[in-house]
Amino acid sequence: MGGQLLALRIPHYFPPERSPELVEALKRRFKVNAYERATNLNRIGTPFVNARGNEAVRELYLASAPDFLRELRAVCNVCAWPIDRLRLEMDELWPAGSVTLKIDGRTCFVGLTRIFENGSFARPHQDSLRRDGPDLIIARSIKDQLAANIYLDKADAGGVLQLWSRRLPDDEYEAMKQAGGHGIDPESLGAPDAQIAPEVGDLILFRSSHLHAVSKIEGRPRVAASAFIGYWGAQEPLRFWS
Ligand SMILES: O=C(O)CCC(=O)C(=O)O
Ligand SMILES: [Fe+2]
Question: What region holds the Fe2OG dioxygenase domain (predicted)?
């Protein structure tokens, strides 16, 4: 959280031999939705970013979060849902504990599962709670935003996580963003500072407030359960949401 590390990789955080079973169970139980702004990238769950500037979508997001969390745990009956396990372990490790982000006293959804189909990718982008929920008082004092991804399947080729140690100021980032699309043109950036090809079972933590991208997927889908982890300072709890 002090900013010295760009990413941390923990192999076999989830037992790789159990991944196919979990991915199948998730797909059986839940509806797989397309990402609105990215072709071929599918998801199980609704990200908070979808509620940006839309009260009705935010209401739906918050209303469905408790049931969604319960269902994810039930589907993952082979073992603990890996995002829960991570939050609980962080709770024990972090002096001020680790909680799910609350909005008006209500629990956020956490555990969005991204399914990158053949040909999909994520352009360089920065994730920001302050941008997604500009009205949230809690978002104003956030100091940094990490992403945690637990990889449940990998592509035949591609799907490399690319990280830059740069963070563009919000106005500059907005100005460079593709109109109506997601992320910025990779041509406008230099080569990434780190590249990680995730293996099944890996947990990778990185600073999602900084520029990051996923290279084009080839072949089988790449699947990852994810969470954002907000850092509000050393004396504050870590907060998880998707
Ligand atoms: O799937 C990945 O490796 C990273 C996806 C991403 O953009 C994020 O977790 O913020
Ligand atoms: Fe991201």
Answer: 104-231
Q: How many residues does the chain have?
A: 242
Nearest to 148 by CA among 72, 198, 203: 203
| Ligand 1 site-directed mutation target among 132, 161, 215, most atoms within 8 Å of CB | 161
Q: What separation, in Å, do the N-terminal and C-terminal C-alpha atoms of the chain show?
A: 19
Q: Could you report the predicted ipTM of this complex, rounded to two decimals?
A: 0.99
What local confidence, expressed as pLDDT, does residue 179 receive? 73
CA 113, 83, 170, 192 dihedral sign is negative
Contacts with 184 (C-beta within 8 Å, 6 or more apart), sequence order: 123, 124, 125, 173, 176, 177, 178, 211
Q: Which residues line ligand 1 (CB under 6 A)?
A: 114, 122, 127, 147, 149, 161, 208, 212, 214, 224, 226
What ligand has the least distance to the C-alpha of 152?
1
pLDDT along the chain (242 residues), means of 10: 84 92 94 82 92 94 90 84 93 93 96 96 96 96 97 97 95 84 88 97 97 97 98 98 98
200: closest CA among 3, 55, 12?
12
Distance 230 CA to ligand 2 centre (A): 13
The closest ligand to the CA of 242 turns out to be 1
Report which ligand 1 atom has the smallest distance to the Cα of 125.
7
Identity of the amino acid at 198: P
Residue nearest to atom 5 of ligand 1 (CA): 214
> pLDDT at position 78, please?
66
Ligand 1 atom index nearest CA of 226: 9
* pLDDT score for 1: 67
